[in-house]
Amino acid sequence: MENIQQFSAVKPIIEFRGVSKTYQTGTHALEDVNIKINNGEFVFVVGSSGAGKSTFMKLIMREEKANTGKIVVNGFDLTNMKRKDVPMLRRTMGIVFQDFRLIPNMTVFDNVAFAMHVVGADGRDIRKEVSKALAKVGLGHKARALPNQLSGGEQQRVGLARALVNSPDLIIADEPTGNVDPNMSYEIVSLLTEINRKGTTILMVTHDHNLVRDFNHRVIMLDSGRIIADNVGGEI
Fold first, then answer.
1. Would you put residue 231 in left (φ > 0), alpha (ψ -120 to 50) or beta?
2. CA gap 126, 104 in Å, rounded
3. pTM listed for this prediction
4. For residue 4, pLDDT beyond 50
């Protein structure tokens, strides 16, 4: 595994160079993608179904491997990364899912703490950092609740706290507002924006063009596996 300290004059947190991905079914998911996302940016990724958004995210998380090109994420060269090194990469990122993925028989506190147990944190740090993460998303008072006692918006905020708790450099949010109402959608993106202001890079896939227009962030648009637009300021 190659750990690259500097890939360009301005160090990007994500860089794709000539990246293509074709699945065994013959589906051409990405074609010659070249993109840089710098540390501290907030980037929306948009496009219709089948445009390549999911593949783009899976390559960043190393759930899939590119057929051609070079990908660097957070200093890690993913091109020839061994499977045993993937957990080290993923410890540098937090992931927020559309379907929450909370463990139903565990409390809110324990769902968030689980992310710290995975990386071997000690009990004192877990208690401190989980409490801080829940406070950031406004759920300190729900620490002992079970997921089924929460609204959809509250469950997604638990997911956000879980993504935050290990202080990642990068948060990947895959349709985080897909299962919540419009008011909660704005609240979720507002929370992500506040987290971004404190230095964390945010990469968010969304179908909600109203959110994209209302939040003044960079927008990458995919179509048929290619980047067809890359704009700053919510223009789509």
1. beta
2. 20
3. 0.88
4. no
**Main-chain phi, psi angles of 168, to 5 degrees:** -70, 155
**The two three-digit tokens of residue 79, written as one number:** 């091109």
Q: Is a pLDDT exceeding 50 seen at residue 7?
A: no
| Domains of the chain in sequence order | 41-62+83-231 (3.40.50.300)
pLDDT digits (tens, 9 = 90+) for 185-235: 999 999 999 999 999 999 999 989 899 999 989 999 999 999 999 987 656
DSSP β-ladder status, 201-205 and 170-174: parallel
Rounded distance between C-alpha atoms, residue 68 and residue 46, angstroms? 23
DSSP bridge partners of 30:
21
Neighbouring CB atoms inside 10 A of 87's CB total 11
Look-up of token digits 């620490």: 143
73 HSE (CA, 13 A, CB side): 28
| pLDDT, tens digit, 9 for 90 and up, residues 113-125 | 999 998 888 988 9
